[in-house]
Amino acid sequence: MNYHWNWGIFLQQVSSSDETFLQWMLIGLGWTVAVSLTAWVIALVMGSIMGTLRTVPDRRLVLIGTAWVETFRNVPILVQLFVWFFVLPEFLPQDLAMWVKQDMPFKEFLTASIALGLFTSARVAEQVRAGIQSLSRGQRNAGLALGFTLPQTFRYVILPMAFRIIIPPLTSEFMNTFKNSSVAFAIGVWDLTFVSRQMVEETGGQVIETLAAATLLYFICAMAANRLMRFIESRTRVPGLIIAH
Amino acid sequence: MHQFDFSVIPQSLPFIWQGFLFSLTLTLTAMIGGIGLGTLLALARLSGGKFLSRAAAIYVDTLRSIPLLMVILWCFLLIPIIFGVRMGAEKSAMITFTLFEAAFYCEIIRAGIQSIPKGQINAGYALGMDYRTVMGNVILPQAFRNMLPILLTQTIVLFQDTSLVYAIGASDLLHAAEVTGKTFNRPVEMYAFAAIVYFIICFSLSTIVKRLQKRIAIIR
Amino acid sequence: QEIDGTLKKVKDTGSITLGIRESSGPLSYLDANQKVIGYHIDICYKIVDAVKAKLKLPGLKVAEQAVTSQNRIPLVVNGTVDLECGSTTNSADRQKQVAFAPTTFVTNVRMAVKKASGITDLDQLGGKPVATTTGTTSVALMRAHEKGKSIDFKEVYGKDHADSFLLLESDRAVAFVMDDNLLASLIANSQNAAQYAIVGPALSTEPIAIMLRKDDPQFKALVDDTVKGLMKSGEINKLYAKWFTSPIPPKNVSLNFAMSDALKNAIANPNDNPVEAYKK
Amino acid sequence: MIEIKDVSKWYGKFQVLTDCTTQISKGEVVVVCGPSGSGKSTLIKTVNGLEPIQKGKILVRGTSVHDPKTNLPQLRAHVGMVFQHFELFPHMSIIDNLCIAQMKVLARGREESADKGLKLLDRVGLKAHANKYPGELSGGQQQRVAIARALSMDPICMLFDEPTSALDPEMINEVLDVMVELAQEGMTMMVVTHEMGFARKVAHRVVFMDQGKIVEDAAKDDFFGKPHSERAQQFLSKILQH
Amino acid sequence: MIEIKDVSKWYGKFQVLTDCTTQISKGEVVVVCGPSGSGKSTLIKTVNGLEPIQKGKILVRGTSVHDPKTNLPQLRAHVGMVFQHFELFPHMSIIDNLCIAQMKVLARGREESADKGLKLLDRVGLKAHANKYPGELSGGQQQRVAIARALSMDPICMLFDEPTSALDPEMINEVLDVMVELAQEGMTMMVVTHEMGFARKVAHRVVFMDQGKIVEDAAKDDFFGKPHSERAQQFLSKILQH
Ligand SMILES: Nc1ncnc2c1ncn2[C@@H]1O[C@H](COP(=O)(O)OP(=O)(O)OP(=O)(O)O)[C@@H](O)[C@H]1O
Ligand SMILES: Nc1ncnc2c1ncn2[C@@H]1O[C@H](COP(=O)(O)OP(=O)(O)OP(=O)(O)O)[C@@H](O)[C@H]1O
Ligand SMILES: [Mg+2]
Ligand SMILES: [Mg+2]
């Protein structure tokens, strides 16, 4: 193949600015991490609430949880992102819409984080629900029998164990969040994907080097997420209890 | 407020249908191939063989740590170089998705196999069955039944992920919607329409999965 | 003479693959039936005809492969695509990877605005949101412009031109900086074409050309001869008129995009000079 | 102390309990037995409102359990319950298992709770294990902790649902011994169990259930002497044969 | 029939079995008992090679079980085994549970297998349930099916690992009855169980294990009369108290 290799490309300066391509990549990495982590926090909070709602003995709450999950998991993330970014502001009052469209600080970053966070929250909710349901009914009864209210039973008895049980599938979801964050470029977040697209353009087609670097950085992110969750798993491991995976 | 003009939707239907058919073909191919390959990988991971399980683990962990988009691009660029064959975007996508999804199916099937009590394996062996008979007649049928909902949920994710083939110029459901949106310069309407189409398809599928789950669950 | 390179491959496989873009109007884009059409597509088919004649293969199969700005170069390099008929800028960097046919179009990077905004120049845009498309030269041009003139835009980016235009249309941006032919095509297709104008001086002038594999003298010669032939015979002017100054699909409106002096010059003196040669 | 009046309960269309009536006075020990699926667990769970009922009434110290106005958590806090599978909280140490409800429900202080917890652990012979986790104890030890946990709430009565049936034979006795002691101290107890030795030793009355009905409700000696119903005779013969 | 010679086994560094030696002659019924975790299950699983051993030798009808040259599936096919948790295949009907191994291992035809299966189901009193699934049967019924399944392979001897300990008290007897019958017909049996009534009734010898060692290996009457070791005395007193 007549490909013109140039691994030194990363040290070259970008013609339109003072940075090198390597620095660019690192800026991209920074935004990727920022979007992913923000989204993950949103996903954990909303996913835990919605997943729990689906297991309480109240029809209406279950329905809310179910609707949430079905809405956010049945539409591809890219499409959801566009709905948040392009479609929803059209329904706001004129002034607010203009503010959201033009002046809202970090609007791309926030939109991407929220869209990705809610998308992921549907999956987290399913895991949380599965975790809660995998606990024997006896645990809930034991909590209630001691005089705990239902919320207290969830808080002190059910959720701490449910979360421990679902750490492995949550790890996958956390890794997925990093991977899925690559859609953020589509609304103009300067993330790794954005940078690599721009870099391919401005280097006159050093695609393979660029792709390799971006892939490696995504891989590192996902691995770091994996290690972090493993660490949490080992820290929260209950002595004497082997949680089946 | 934006002037919505949904007249592009009827014009887009033939292409959306074409795109849907491609998404469906890709999903089915990757599902069947991925489950087949994934089962082999899962058995390799659970096998006593150090090398075999290590190799399978590396394959699975690597693919699970890279965005699908990157895998699609790599395969599209590298397969012609490595194998010296020219390959259209469609074929390339099918191979890529099969290889990629196999890693995910592998983990699901592995969990399924591990969810079967060890006593079942012992019971099979105690009756004089060999490894293949025990796996084929006792463990895998149960593992698949237990994991069916998760396998199908993963397949729904896969269906959504087929939209990433836009990166190599294949035309799936979302791409068809986007292209029509561009041709007629009505992207907002087409994104909204795509959202609804995806929701209807995926929601119906997941409802079917739930029904199926009740129907075939093993009575315990 | 033995045939080799791309021509040999085409002869052996009985097929040739064109790389096409799906929304680089009017050079290469999809019509209402999602069939690819455009100025560069017409030229490419002229080249295909020449290949057929040369190889005496009237039944030569023509495959079309959609490419993106990301993958077009590697796909040409790795042999998936034989002739890229999109809207690729000929640059010195790219000439390290691929070869170009003689320049068939010259674009000016300018900006589209809503007429009502009264904006006529980039320098009026300090602190205002300006749109462009990710992964394009325009991003670099805008950044360079900012640096040169010490003004500060709020850049917003669309993932493709349609999205970027939507940013302008829905007031998320007050201007959209892009190749003028693309802007003209987007405006012509928009809901309310009269609302928009292409304004301001050119940020850059770029030669656009059909792309092919490097180090393949036989195929390059055939492509060059064909394109030069079109230019000599004046046929290229007809093609230009067909796509730039007459009504075109899908809406059957004309872009009314007169031929620039730079392009006239390129047709008078066919060449494959990179963009660097166009900088004054 | 506990009055169960005409209680019926359905799961969908399936009737689990049919017009069950009985009562337990202060200090009384009542053993509930009967074949599997006869509704013993369901009945005992209705007493502290873990299961709703569709008909009838249950009073615990005069409070109607299924009245929507009743503060259920408060009532449950004073009715100790021990489950077949112990149901200790696996993510908390033994002492935390004993403290958490005291602190969160009775609003006792950390120290007071721990004092009380350790005292009770001592009583069931497990003080040395206070800082271990449930998974590190044997089944018999876990069940003794579960009893201590219920006692930490100063219950006015105790409900046991097959407390020994998930235990290894060797460990059954260590748990029964604790229960016998409790009974002898005068605790009001309702015990679902198949351990007829325990019933013989400390029960005042035996309630025999079949298919959701209370078939026999007799003083211990009457029950073991000559059960009225054929079903109870049959059951006893099977249980006692080996 | 079965010879266990100096068998030792380790899980990593933890020694589960230490120099176990015993043998079972044709037609003999041997009961293995001992406290939880003493290695009973492990020992019985080494007999048909479900657990590898690191030292010693086990011969079944003269064939060395742990010799790499032994055709283990073939050997296992002739050693019936019944597990604590039944281990029926939940995705197959009862009759399929009885046929699958006959067909896949002994290469019997579908009909021959089904005939044999139905005959055995009849013997354990469950012919009427042939087309149900395991999940639809009670524990006692499932365990009887498991015994029938093992018998369908025409075993030369049977291994039982706590066959009644996962059962409701009422169901224990229906299973023990089947086992007593088997023993009385002269089947060679090795039975891990806590049911001393069963041991008294049909065992020829009792093996008592503690901490991976065989502590006592005595004729039934000697064992129940006056166990040598203190550990066995203690164990018996706990088991038999209630
Ligand atoms: N949540 C439920 N939904 C439907 N039916 C139920 C439910 N819980 C219990 N049942 C049924 O109610 C009946 C009584 O159950 P219960 O657990 O009270 O029996 P039990 O006497 O405690 O039996 P065991 O000795 O097996 O514990 C059984 O037939 C059981 O199948
Ligand atoms: N796979 C394993 N890995 C490590 N240790 C094990 C494993 N299986 C069993 N053990 C340990 O080996 C010892 C003996 O186990 P075994 O199951 O043979 O005991 P047992 O006498 O059958 O007890 P029980 O009456 O509880 O069934 C126990 O201490 C157990 O924890
Ligand atoms: Mg019960
Ligand atoms: Mg055992």
From TrEMBL, chain A:
Keywords, in A-Z order: Cell membrane, Membrane, Transmembrane, Transmembrane helix, Transport
Subcellular location: Cell inner membrane; Cell membrane
Keyword Transport: yes
Membrane topology: Multi-pass membrane protein
Annotated ABC transmembrane type-1 domain residues: 29-229
TM region(s), chain numbering: 24-49, 61-86
Cited InterPro entries: AA_ABC_transptr_permease_3TM, ArtM/GltK/GlnP/TcyL/YhdX-like, MetI-like, MetI-like_sf
Pfam families in the record: BPD_transp_1
Chief place where the protein resides: membrane
Superkingdom of the source species: Bacteria
PANTHER family, sorted: GLUTAMATE_ASPARTATE IMPORT PERMEASE PROTEIN GLTJ, MEMBRANE COMPONENT OF AMINO ACID ABC TRANSPORTER
Membership in a protein family: Belongs to the binding-protein-dependent transport system permease family. HisMQ subfamily.
Protein name: Amino acid ABC transporter permease
Species of provenance: Uliginosibacterium sediminicola
From TrEMBL, chain B:
Presence of the UniProt keyword Cell membrane in the record: yes
Location of the ABC transmembrane type-1 domain: 20-209
Main location as per UniProt: membrane
Transmembrane spans: 20-44, 65-87, 150-170, 190-209
Domain of life: Bacteria
Subcellular location as annotated: Cell inner membrane; Cell membrane
Pfam annotation, one family: BPD_transp_1
InterPro entries xref list: AA_ABC_transptr_permease_3TM (IPR010065), ArtM/GltK/GlnP/TcyL/YhdX-like (IPR043429), MetI-like (IPR000515), MetI-like_sf (IPR035906)
Entries under SUPFAM superfamilies matching the protein: MetI-like
Family: Belongs to the binding-protein-dependent transport system permease family. HisMQ subfamily.
Protein name in UniProt: Amino acid ABC transporter permease
Organism: Uliginosibacterium sediminicola
UniProtKB/TrEMBL annotation, chains D, E:
Transmembrane segments: none
Topology of this chain in the membrane: Peripheral membrane protein
Compartments where found: Cell membrane
InterPro entries associated with the record: AAA+_ATPase (IPR003593), ABC_ATPase_HisP-typ (IPR030679), ABC_transporter-like_ATP-bd (IPR003439), ABC_transporter-like_CS (IPR017871), MetN_ABC_transporter-like (IPR050086), P-loop_NTPase (IPR027417)
Matching CDD domains: ABC_HisP_GlnQ
Domain ABC transporter: 2-236
One Gene Ontology molecular-function label: ATP binding
SUPFAM superfamilies per the UniProt record, alphabetical: P-loop containing nucleoside triphosphate hydrolases
Keywords for the protein's UniProt record, in alphabetical order: Amino-acid transport, ATP-binding, Cell membrane, Membrane, Nucleotide-binding, Transport
Principal location class: membrane
Keyword ATP-binding in record: yes
Coiled-coil ranges per UniProt: none
Family: Belongs to the ABC transporter superfamily.
Protein name per the record: Amino acid ABC transporter ATP-binding protein
